[in-house]
Design a protein that fits this description.
By secondary structure, this protein is α/β, with parallel strands linked by helices. The chain has helices spanning 35-51, 63-76, 99-105, 107-115, 128-145, 157-168, and strands at 5-11, 56-59, 80-82, 150-155, 185-190, 196-203. The protein is globular. The termini are far apart.
Length: 208
């Protein structure tokens, strides 16, 4: 079958919203990295440089991912390609709110969202089913483009969890059963016969 296309999945570094656990998708304020987030990106860049396996860098178009990718790519001597399909879910009217605030203001919509991947956040956000379809199409496009190579995808919580879920053949509710830290590394290998192998998940030792 030949060597797989390997996606090293990097969640962006912290923004001011990350420690507060606020919804931060593609429809919100598009925050940049905080000082802590930039330091996380530098540490990740050093760790990836030591491993020496990344051959290309692809990032979501949002500011926090492009900034993270830029720091890493500069250390690796690579350019950053931007892929629209790697953007975070649009959380609609929930953008910038905590989970508790959403439960208080939109309890029925939140309960529906927790119960069905087809439910959209309040105000016309993106359902997890729609996100999964977008991410799967992006995965197929990138595995074809980077066959046999190792590529760093700098993206967000939902796309990374979705790629892991799809690789494992896990149900949609698996998204709520994974913890993904800022600037964590995960990895999935994709083979020519369509099989996938999860190699790493939520690795954060490089940040300590």
């Amino acid at each position: 079958m030949g060597p797989p296309a390997t996606f090293v999945l990097l969640r962006h570094g912290e923004t001011p919203l990350t420690p507060q656990k606020r919804f931060s998708g593609s429809g919100g304020s598009d925050p940049s990295l905080s000082d802590a987030g930039r330091e996380q990106a530098v540490r990740t860049a050093e760790a990836l440089a030591r491993r020496g396996t990344v051959q290309a860098v692809v990032a979501s178009p949002l500011a926090r991912t492009r900034e993270t990718a830029g720091i890493v790519a500069a250390r690796l001597g690579l350019e950053v390609s931007v892929e629209e399909g790697l953007r975070e879910t649009d959380f609609g009217a929930w953008e910038g709110l905590t989970f508790g605030e959403v439960r208080e203001r939109h309890p029925d919509d939140l309960n529906a969202w927790l119960s069905s991947p087809d439910a959209e956040p309040t105000g016309g956000g993106e359902s997890f089913a729609a996100t999964a379809a977008r991410v799967a199409a992006t995965r197929d496009r990138l595995t074809a483009a980077y066959a046999g190579r190792t590529v760093l995808l700098v993206t967000h919580v939902t796309p990374i969890k979705t790629l892991i879920r799809l690789a494992l053949g896990a149900p949609p509710e698996a998204l709520f059963r994974m913890e993904l830290s800022a600037a964590s590394l995960s990895a999935v290998a994709y083979y020519a016969d369509g099989n996938a192998s999860v190699r790493l998940f939520n690795e954060t030792s490089h940040l300590r």
